[in-house]
Amino acid sequence: MIDYQLKGKVAMITGAASGIGFAIAEKMAASGAALSLWDVSEDHLTSAIEKLKHYDVPMLAIVADVSDADAVAAGVERTVAELGRLDIGVNNAGIGGPAAKSAEYPIDGWNKVININLNGVFYCQRAQLQTMVKQGSGSIVNMASILGQVGIAMSPAYVAAKHGVVGMTKSAALEHAADGIRLNSVGPGFIHTPLVDETLDKETQDYLATQHALNRMGTPAEVAELVCWLASDAASFVTGTYYAVDGGYLAK
């Protein structure tokens, strides 16, 4: 496992209890980072922390809904109070939402996807930036998607939210470069996560695999490698950019 030399740094990761978020947490823990781990499920978060204990790094559990701006602000404040600072923000929490054509897409489904996948990322980014500006340093990685660059049928809310994440990351990177803060977004292709396995049958997953040049779906660990590099000082000249980790999906 690559050591991203994160000892002495504090990382906040949302959606950290499973899938991509957990893989990021594990790689950052292995590189020595103290972790503020966020999820909506206390049980899943407790289980995740138990799995990470052997890395012997400070860990804080934050049970919060990222679509609640007040809860996010309080969680970031608690992170700084208990872990001392905030060097890395990984805004990964998200949902898939309903599958429906735009003309028939349920309004409540639209609002829920936008509130978590777009507003939630903004709320976290906003609170992280306020802390990092005071420090004069920091790195934020926002989880977008290949669907932050292209469309797909039956998921208008998800596509809209992920396009929004890419755009607001670029804007914030321009605004806060002078503050010593870097911001980038990451666009995974279709990845084997609990969310995908719960929502897509095997036939659909097999088809999606063929849409990638590498003819397979990715793993959470492969996404985590890119995120950890962007978060680390090794990427010190990288900001305002969207990075795909997509097995060649966008090359078509």
Structural features, described:
This protein has helices at 19-30, 42-52, 69-83, 107-135, 156-176, 194-199, 202-210, 220-231, and strands spanning 10-13, 34-39, 59-63, 88-91, 138-143, 181-188, 242-245. By secondary structure, the chain is an alpha/beta fold. It has one domain (10-191, 220-245): 3-Layer(aba) Sandwich (Rossmann fold). Strands 3-2-1-4-5-6-7 form a 7-stranded parallel β-sheet, sandwiched between helices. Helix 4 (107-135) packs parallel to helix 5. It is globular. The mean pLDDT is 97.
Short structural description:
With 252 residues, this protein is of the alpha/beta class. The chain is 46% helix and 15% strand.
What does the secondary structure layout of this molecule look like, with pairings?
Layout: E1 10-13, H1 19-30, E2 34-39, H2 42-52, E3 59-63, H3 69-83, E4 88-91, H4 107-135, E5 138-143, H5 156-176, E6 181-188, H6 194-199, H7 202-210, H8 220-231, E7 242-245
Parallel strand pairs: 1-2, 1-4, 2-3, 4-5, 5-6, 6-7
Helix pairs in contact: 1-8, 3-4, 4-5
